[in-house]
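INPUT
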Amino acid sequence: MGNTFGKIFRLTTFGESHGKAIGGIIDGCPSGIKIDIDFIQSQLERRKPGQSKITTQRKESDKVKLLSGVFEGVSTGTPIGFVFKNEDAKSKDYFHLKDIFRPSHADFTYQKKYGLRDYRGGGRTSARETANWVVAGSLAQQILSEIGVSINAYVSSVGSIRLNKCYKNIDLSKIDENIVRCPDSSIAKKMIELVEKIKKQGDTIGGEITCVAKGVPAGWGEPVFEKLHAIIGKAMLSINAVHGYKYGFDGLDISSAKGSEVNDVILDIDGTTKTNFSGGITGGLSNGNDIYCEVTFKPVSTILQTQKSINEKGEEVEFKAKGRHDACVVPRAVPVVESMMALSLVDAYLKSKTNKI
Amino acid sequence: MGNTFGKIFRLTTFGESHGKAIGGIIDGCPSGIKIDIDFIQSQLERRKPGQSKITTQRKESDKVKLLSGVFEGVSTGTPIGFVFKNEDAKSKDYFHLKDIFRPSHADFTYQKKYGLRDYRGGGRTSARETANWVVAGSLAQQILSEIGVSINAYVSSVGSIRLNKCYKNIDLSKIDENIVRCPDSSIAKKMIELVEKIKKQGDTIGGEITCVAKGVPAGWGEPVFEKLHAIIGKAMLSINAVHGYKYGFDGLDISSAKGSEVNDVILDIDGTTKTNFSGGITGGLSNGNDIYCEVTFKPVSTILQTQKSINEKGEEVEFKAKGRHDACVVPRAVPVVESMMALSLVDAYLKSKTNKI
Amino acid sequence: MGNTFGKIFRLTTFGESHGKAIGGIIDGCPSGIKIDIDFIQSQLERRKPGQSKITTQRKESDKVKLLSGVFEGVSTGTPIGFVFKNEDAKSKDYFHLKDIFRPSHADFTYQKKYGLRDYRGGGRTSARETANWVVAGSLAQQILSEIGVSINAYVSSVGSIRLNKCYKNIDLSKIDENIVRCPDSSIAKKMIELVEKIKKQGDTIGGEITCVAKGVPAGWGEPVFEKLHAIIGKAMLSINAVHGYKYGFDGLDISSAKGSEVNDVILDIDGTTKTNFSGGITGGLSNGNDIYCEVTFKPVSTILQTQKSINEKGEEVEFKAKGRHDACVVPRAVPVVESMMALSLVDAYLKSKTNKI
Amino acid sequence: MGNTFGKIFRLTTFGESHGKAIGGIIDGCPSGIKIDIDFIQSQLERRKPGQSKITTQRKESDKVKLLSGVFEGVSTGTPIGFVFKNEDAKSKDYFHLKDIFRPSHADFTYQKKYGLRDYRGGGRTSARETANWVVAGSLAQQILSEIGVSINAYVSSVGSIRLNKCYKNIDLSKIDENIVRCPDSSIAKKMIELVEKIKKQGDTIGGEITCVAKGVPAGWGEPVFEKLHAIIGKAMLSINAVHGYKYGFDGLDISSAKGSEVNDVILDIDGTTKTNFSGGITGGLSNGNDIYCEVTFKPVSTILQTQKSINEKGEEVEFKAKGRHDACVVPRAVPVVESMMALSLVDAYLKSKTNKI
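OUTPUT
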């Protein structure tokens, strides 16, 4: 269980980091969508390992292959199956970890849940899985784009270096002007320096990503247990290493605000509000204003330092990870965050079509 | 859609704040559970309006009535239907708001989604709905308790007054020793004073709740899209006024930590870790240590001050809310947070039974 | 599990025959539907016990009470909760059966599944549950009626007395002209005589119901595992005592037909076919022609004769059922069949709105 | 939607007959199952085109490739992705049908639902899809086999040639002794002759398959809307060309039976019954006796004769199908029926683990 996202536009995935392939099935994609494979591939490039000096050097071409559901370049409404071959998996980097439960990794928990595990490259727990999400998410972005919704994410902090500006005061077209994907060149520079420093130490560092969706009309989302912000939150919390999520409030400390300060006065019949502390969502439904949220990543657990742990027999061991790893995942996670936002919104959009007869 | 929580232990609810009744159906409750109706009722008392000077003065006896699924005091495995009658609804407090879209309320978004709305008492969007969750959640707590899992939540901040201690250094038995449900009497006193002050101003204030689950064995949760922390996150984000969620990291700033500082060294074959920055969950699965998270509430939107907004015709209006409202919801939200944790965990527990044949 | 029907228009139910109440929650009903409570009640009257000399004499007023989701007579889009009180339950008729596993009843299987059971009146397994379905189903019929779809079911056989005519040659307005609900007065007369005879013997007899839906446009249903006829089939097979289902083929023996004889030639761009062996569904999707199917009921298991069985200790026992029971359920099952057809179709209709953007 | 089967053991599929590949993802397979790829492949051989003179001569090697979820020959509990390449697709056989809505095919209904369609080889509507089901179904059979459940299906009629014997009086080991898969050699011979005759006429013929599951313990299944026989019924009705389903009653006419004749007297505490008219299921739950049902197939719609229809412009046309087709599908459908039974049962089995704590 747990390998499907969405109710109507549904992504189901499979695959281990060092297995034969990873892939997925997108069910519930409306028919008649022109598939822009170049856009999908461009989002995959942004997620790809080896794209810059601050990411892992593992090489994967990450060329997705669509197997069904598309005819003459257009979605047919039937499931879209897709695969990626695994190419540059160096499983032997993991042989020495075969019996070791790495700290803050899922080795121990998978072993407890399933009684066995594929230890190579983290198996199913590897963030390689998120390539599947980007395929479906960028398709979702295309659909949303046709109805006027755009989605952008950017790195708003790495370690304690933080972009202290509201997204409204940021030029979102500059996100990809640097390798850390922070749309402020001077802060980006500091972030890159920090990642390089941390990398040299064989250590890792966390960060934050802000995501903005513009053009969502009022009324998407479902009350009570599928509130739009809760669906988005669950989507973001599915991303490897994410430990926190908040929406709205624009940098303000949510819990210490007063109602009189943060109530968003409605200005017109389209729902435009004077301020947007609500983050574009009220009562779990989109309110017509920009949706925005912040996602917090912990430092990744694989560090290139000697660590203590235990093995399967319960014996204390020391080990050191080999392989090629990210010192900071947030630059590569930007298209993943966009994809999870898109998957959440496209599903909300399709559901909203059933509100009335 | 959106009125069901859970996959195996499933709660489906109905009801508007000022309608005839609210209630729900619990499907998937295992058979043979002795129903401790007193415990359910005691949790409802903690959530009830009118319980202290710092909560709304609306009076509801909030006596739940179980209609099915229980025979001779024991769950039969069939659905448990339950209802609460609405008693002290003063709908006329809302007549003057009939055509007004209140700021940061769901009036506007429901109108956009459904084309009409029950304006009385917030209708379906009222936090009165959470009484239903407490019924199912406290039943879930009973089941969990039989397998050694306990759940406790407490208020960790009101406005900028914050309990800056890790839950491990707190005596959780003291949570209910004061009306704000903060288990530190001197901080609680300050919180109560703040709420009273805010209340006098006709204003509202946010806060935070920390929730701890002890005794969860390793291996609960599902990978990828139903990670345990993501399910809990979605559950918490369903609670009215919640805008943020994080798990683990114990007060530390997640994004600025280094991997070498926060990796949890595993000490023994039960998975006990030296530190618990992971918050009891690794790779989306429980790891055998305490699960804990923090939930952030914005100030409630109903303030007793004159506010500007628009009406259904798009005309600018001024209005002032009548009725009885909470200046700060966190004290009453404590059992709701516990309930949502319990619903998340009991479902994960039941799913875990299908991992192996 | 198993107490919810539908994906978008969802009915979840609860209740035991001799418990406090039965009821349900309808989630996903579109907003803006004028609720015709008289129609709902009229369908309940057709299902009600005690309605004629050939049904059980148990008296239930079967007045449904809507608790939520309706405001000023119109659906709001939020869940519609409803209940029926149980009134004429004579539980002591069942005390002597407390420890006995009645033949072809679910006493034994519930005991095995759950380890205990509510033996009174069959508990959850009683067909009293179907009153809940009629509430949701007749609401579904109203929605369908607004978009031009009508549904009619009638008794096509009782025992070996069979109405050997295609539905097209039958005046469906005559269904309720007699108490057996067979729209041919002379055959109805024979059916009634047979039921009376069987009843006098303390025995029971099976029968068949044909159901016809007119006005369904082409393109409803989902391919592969949610084919429209499979969803309808599952719905019908959920009805107590149903053992068989077929659709199309109009009395013809399906398996001995040749392709050249039963292919339906398409005549025009609306999909009108010369013949309708397909039963209005091709490839799992509605094709624009009338949908029709046949549902086969076994004789009910409660007979008023002495029977052998075993008790909970495994000892052989003889027993005789008391209470008031139906000798033949098909007359009362007619609105239940219509309801299950309506629930299947309304869900397919709502799903069909998500096919295209 | 509609491309997923099951709740816990879930199969999601993709693929068109003449696309690049077909395949699927099995989610929820318990860990620790030794994968017997030879058994899977042997079931695929029984379904494969070109296996005998009475099936279509299309050649597909139908070698399935497992891509994930299996490590060192054992299931890991993570999703099992699999694919089949399409090899012998002769799409040009379909070019002349590009604009034609073939009678009793899904061309018209897919066009109406989706606005376009992949016309090559029937696209998604082709029974080639069922190869995916056999992969998952034979894996399900392996799991069931480990807990003592066996499943066998056989052809019980072709046209009006019928095996008039209860399954109990049949040697199920003889099913594969002839190419029509009827375990009675003299009747099989007549069936084969009939298929050959029909084939020469360029026509098609229907048939029936009986399926038996032995060893299912009492208590599997879910009440009300997921009754075991209803789940199995839906599974069977998902198979291409199936128009009817019944369970139990052993050849007896269900609707004309009397309760006193067909109530199954329980003999012992394991639930063994004297007769088995119930077909092994009572009140929607398995009762410990053999489960059996009968599935009715219409003749396939593709006949090699000139037929009338209309084209996309609504003009009357005459056409004749080319390509390689089955005159009677039941021999090849035997493993498909077994697979759908296995998928239904394995899901019921896993659900049953959550009945009690």
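end of record. Chain D has a mean pLDDT of 94.
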